[in-house]
Amino acid sequence: MNLELKRVLVTGGTGFLGSHIVDKLYDHGCLSVVVPEHSQYDLRRREEVCDMYRNFSPDIVIHAAAMCGGIQSCSANPARFLYDNLTMGLEVLEGAREYKVEKFVAISSVCAYPLNVSLPAKEDDLWNGYPEATNAPYGIAKRVLLEQCKAYRNQYAMNCIGLVPVNMYGPRDSFEPVRSHVIPSLIRKCIEAKRDGTDFTVWGTGKASREFLYVEDCAEAVVLATEKHNGEEPVNIATGDETPIENVVGIISSLLAYRGLVKWDISKPDGQPRRLFDTSRAKEFGFKATTPLWQGLSKTIEWYMDRL
Questions:
Q1: Range 273-301 average pLDDT
Q2: Which residues contact 304 (CB under 8 A, 6 or more apart)?
Q3: What phi and psi values does residue 216 have, to the nearest 5 degrees?
Q4: pLDDT in the model for residue 235
Q5: Catalytic residue of the set 138, 152, 169, 258
Q6: What is the pLDDT of residue 180?
Q7: How crowded is residue 107: how many other Cβ atoms within 10 Å of its Cβ?
Q8: Which of 27, 73, 191, 222 gets the most CB atoms within 10 Å of its CB?
Q9: CA end-to-end distance (rounded Å), the chain
């Protein structure tokens, strides 16, 4: 698709990933990007979704809005995470069908994958088991969104695609203690430990590994897929490299010149033991992550420190 000629609506466009998607759309020549405000449109409500489509008349919808958070937030709000994400997906995609949107891009989540998936995980493995328990309600809602895209393609011939990003980090992420994901939580804790002269305490053993994708790389992948990808099967948006949490802690400590003690709280969960993903499908539309972890962490720390 030639984005210069299309009006693109980004749900969640003021949020972490969504705001970077908006930036990348302009970088790719899109001249008309619209971002519905959460205060004006509750995407769980059919009538407000219909108002959104009537008011903006988009050609393309990128559905990046989500109720999300780290392990602590997921564990405390399983019903909210399931209901809000499931309902938003159902209503926003059905509204896109009713208003004859040309293309719908659904942003799913790595949490949709089963706990014991074979590595590197391929998209065909998404339904081969139950997700990791601490984020299963959120993961299941994001799984259903992918299946909804497939169903709408098959029944209505809609151009719907589903993307599955791995753990993201970067500027504009949430650093709130209850809502933050792994990397912002670690950065905030390390800064506080250095400031207060206390131990840097980290949940779990440090042995669990993750793929960490810089948010600007993810946004680039979303826009490339919007322009070039048209397929029924979901697509991993990943780096193809895994990093143990203890290594991430080491890089953050080095970047912040923290010289104190790192303590591992093994009474807290590690979450899924490993995450590593096959990136073959994303390469077909030209995506490859380009930001090294240390560089992305440095940029994220700089952004956060500027706002303290």
A1: 96
A2: 171, 175, 184, 187, 188, 191
A3: -70, -35
A4: 98
A5: 138
A6: 85
A7: 25
A8: 222
A9: 41
Q: Tens of pLDDT along 90-125?
A: 999 999 999 999 999 999 999 999 998 999 999 999
Distance CA 85, CA 133 (A): 17
Residue 304 designated active-site: no
Name the nearest CA neighbour of 202 among 142, 271, 150.
271
Q: Is the dihedral of CA 140, 145, 147, 148 positive or negative?
A: positive
d(CA 31, CA 265): 49
Segment 211-254, tens digit of pLDDT: 999 999 999 999 999 999 999 999 999 999 999 999 999 999 99
- Residue 13 identity (one-letter amino acid): G
The CA distance from 172 to 192, in Å, is 19
Q: For residue 39, give every residue at least 6 positions away whose Cβ sits within 8 Å of its Cβ, in sequence order, or none.
A: none
What is the structure's pLDDT at 69?
Answer: 78
Enter the CATH code of domain 3-168+213-240+275-291: 3.40.50.720
Percentage of the residues of the chain whose pLDDT score is greater than 70? 100
